[in-house]
Amino acid sequence: MNTDTHATHADDHHHEGGHAHGSFSTYMLGFVLSVVLTAIPFWLVMSGALPSKQITALVIMAFAVVQIVVHMIYFLHMNTTSENGWSMMALIFTIVMVVIALSGSLWVMSHLNSNMMPMHQMSGMK
Amino acid sequence: MTVAVNPSQTGEPVFYLAEEHPHPEGWSTSLGFWIYLMSDCLIFAILFATFGVLGGNYAAGPAPKDLFDLNLVAVNTSMLLLSSITYGFAMLTMQQNKVAQTQVWLAITGLFGLAFIGIELTEFAHMIHEGATPQRSAFLSAFFTLVGTHGLHVSCGLIWLVTLMVQVQKFGLIEANRRRLMCLSMFWHFLDVVWIGVFTFVYLLGVLR
């Protein structure tokens, strides 16, 4: 730390890249949003307000995605600058992995399922 | 110690630091903990994928409609949501250096977490009593593995919370304890994010099916 370049370099690392903190208002805003985003899907399913099950399923999944983003921003304080952007990079990588694992498993297994010979045909083959 | 080639003399770029400058203790903890959480996220992703594949295989056993009580799940979800905001208040009071208030908020968070685990275990006991054990069908195996893993995480979070309350009581809000409380805050809010997936995909979509 005896030269100017060293000092500024150390500064880059330790102050800009710190972990972000919330305030009372952001926590409360996040809480109110998450209560609303939880209550609506529960109400939709319990009351059967929407005419078709498929529409209800799509709507509650959309609510879940929005609520996850709300929690990420207001409770986990995710932003593009914390840890010099590395936490965002790790998050993006994880999201890519999760999407591949989930969609891949569901897609492949549903195809396997529909290509399986039905049980009653299999017993007739003996 | 390390002899670096001076770039100005040879004209070749140097891609490493000849001498690592000193870092204060714990400067990389939050990033490292975040990467741990992301790897934990992958565990849950695989358990969700397993549940997604096996969730419809009832083996002529009970279906989600027969088992799940959405009122109870709603109460459980509110417990976890409330514990999230009270942990947020604990972090805010920690930043203001108020030891006693921080402890109170941490204790309230712990009680909400305990209520969550209590309700979940009651639900599990009720299901097992009705014969809906993990061995009954692929759906129930996947259900107990996914929801049980989440519950186990919350239980570990509770043990961690009590440990940190003792630490804060003994040593106060020193730098190390602040860092630990911040890590637990990330862990706690992360478990809340996972629970959003659980109540949507397991309970709500299960009842809808």
Give the CATH H-level superfamily of the domain at 68-208 in chain B: Cytochrome c oxidase, subunit III, four-helix bundle
How many helices of chain A? The count is 5
How many DSSP H or I helices of chain B? 7
What series of H and E elements makes up the topology of chain A?
Answer: HHHHH
The biggest beta sheet of chain A reads: none
Q: Specify the oligomeric state.
A: heterodimer
Rounded to the nearest angstrom, the radius of gyration of chain A is 24 Å
Low-confidence stretches of chain A: 1-17
Global mean pLDDT of chain A: 82
Q: Most extensive chain contact? A: A-B, 50 and 47 residues
The stretches of 5 or more residues of chain B where confidence is low (pLDDT under 50) are none
Shape of chain B: flat
Query: What is the count of β-strands of chain A?
Result: 0
Strand content of chain A: under 5%
In terms of DSSP E residues, the strand content of chain B is: under 5%
**What CATH first level of the domain at 68-208 in chain B would be assigned?**
Mainly Alpha
Instruction: From the alpha carbons, calculate the radius of gyration of chain B and give it in angstroms.
Output: 23 Å
Structural class of chain B: mainly alpha
Summarize the biggest pleated sheet of chain B: none
Describe this entry's structure for a reader.
- The complex is a heterodimer of chains A (126) and B (209).
- By secondary structure, chain A is mainly alpha-helical.
- Chain A is built from five helices and no strands.
- In chain A, α2 runs antiparallel to α3.
- The model of chain A is unreliable at 1-17 (pLDDT under 50).
- Chain B is mainly α.
- Chain B has a domain at 68-208: Cytochrome c oxidase, subunit III, four-helix bundle (Four Helix Bundle (Hemerythrin (Met), subunit A), Up-down Bundle).
- In chain B, 76% of the residues lie in helices and 0% in strands.
- Chain B is flat and about 70 Å long.
- The mean pLDDT of chain B is 92.
- Chain A: Belongs to the cytochrome c oxidase bacterial subunit 4 family.
- Chain A: It is a multi-pass membrane protein.
- Chain A: The chain crosses the membrane at residues 24-45, 57-76, 88-109.
- Chain A: InterPro entries: Cyt_c_oxidase_su4_prok, Cyt_o_ubiqinol_oxidase_su4, Cytochrome_c_oxidase_bac_sub4.
